[in-house]
Amino acid sequence: MRILFALPGFHRYERGAEVALLSVADELAKLGESVTVIGAGEPREGVRYRYKKLGAARRERFERLPSIPGLRDETKWEDATFAANLAAKEDLSQYDVTVTCNFPFTNLALQRGRRKGPRNVFVTQNGDWPAFSNDSEYRLFNCDGLVCTNPSYLERNRDRWNCTLIPNGVDVARFTPASSAEKIACRERLKLPQQRPIVLMVSAFIRTKRVLDGIRAVAQHDGAHLVVAGDGPLRAEGDRLAAELLPNRFTRLSLQASEMPQLYRAADVFMHLSEFESFGNVYLEAWASGLPVVAHDFEVTRWIYGDTQYLCDTGDEAALEEKLRLALVAPVGKAPEGIDQFTWPEIANNYRNFFSQFAAVSEAK
Q1: Which of 69-78, 250-259, 277-286 has the lowest mean pLDDT?
Q2: pLDDT tens string 173-206
Q3: What are phi and psi of 27, to 5 degrees?
Q4: Do 296 and 142 form a contact (C-beta atoms < 8 A)?
Q5: Residue 64 zone, left/alpha/beta (φ > 0; ψ -120 to 50; rest)
Q6: Which stretch of DSSP H or E encloses residue 98?
Q7: 152 lies in the same domain as 296
Q8: Are residues 235 and 146 in the same domain?
Q9: Which of 28, 92, 101, 240 is exposed most, by the fewest CB atoms within 10 A?
Q10: Pairing label, strands 97-100, 2-6
Q11: Rounded distance, CA 72 to CA 66, Å?
Q12: pTM score, two decimals?
């Protein structure tokens, strides 16, 4: 199969959608498929897929612009500039399947290729709202296949679209529990305190990720040090709040993807307070790293973890404080059981099976 993955954040950001789809692309190339990835970042060594760079304005330039239909946040402006280049410069007839998780602009740019042969697959990495809403620009949404990253999305969309349920995955060779010696070494490399329990959040500084609530929660636990790996429009507000509530107990950093496993190994507890995620790669990365996980109790986390982690209504301050207290005294480094179903080779094979129906249609044309 000839497969195209298109997203402006490819090779530019290490956020959940980019990490997930690039992992799938690399595994599919490993399986022998002809895979092309188009993004706005720089080429990388060591990848199996073919990479092409297209220009796109950086999303940070648009953080303070007002929200309007179609351009509701800074990522949509980035998407619009990328999609314009994609439509102008890429011949889509050379592919059997095109894949994105960006709406509206990249999705619409790929729709034009459907007349030339390739089928378009939309992945709900950033939510399924485009697939079921008929408001405003969402009425323009279309796809030949919809990859639902959680059971709720599948249930909501299965009667309207050609759907499949495929979660995200994790590289269990990279994300592994740390020994005591490894934890010390990782903290030393990252310049993190050795004598304090570390609570880790891997979250963008945006409202829905609730990093500021995480700062308030950790402030209730004397001695705990909060590390946040992420960036976003609320970074300055987060820094100010941490300076007030967590003096000398807060670290904000940005790391390359290659450095993330050692960050998990340096931690004692993982906390993620988003009240809803399409999936959340970080849930698996923390689990594979043997960390106790404090997270919001909703259908996705319950589907992933069952009753094995510290789930609660994280909007309830007392409940969150209690779960965090329990997690801080829980054993670290326990090898995860049941994570095999979420490995990238398994996930990529599911994508391959789903894409195969569209390759047959393309060849028939």
Answers
A1: 69-78
A2: 999 999 999 999 999 999 999 999 999 999 999 9
A3: -65, -40
A4: no
A5: alpha
A6: strand 97-100
A7: no
A8: no
A9: 240
A10: parallel
A11: 8
A12: 0.84
Closest CA relative to residue 278, chosen from 148, 87, 157, 94: 148
Return the axis-axis angle of helices 235-245 and 211-219, rounded to nearest 10°.
Answer: 10
Q: Which two tokens stand for residue 290?
A: 């043997």
For tokens 């705990």, name the residue: 224
H/E run at residue 3: strand 2-6
Phi and psi (nearest 5°) for 163?
A: -110, 155
Largest Cα separation within the chain, whole Å, is: 66
Tokens of 333: 């480094």
Q: CA 353: distance to chain centroid? A: 22
Region at 210 (left for phi over 0; alpha for psi -120 to 50; beta for the rest): left
Query: Cβ neighbours of residue 42 under 8 Å, at least 6 residues apart?
Result: 11, 12, 53
Instruction: Give the total number of structural domains in the chain.
Output: 2
The tokens for 195 are 């004598």
Residue 175 belongs to a domain: no
**Within 10 Å of residue 67's Cβ, how many Cβ atoms?**
10
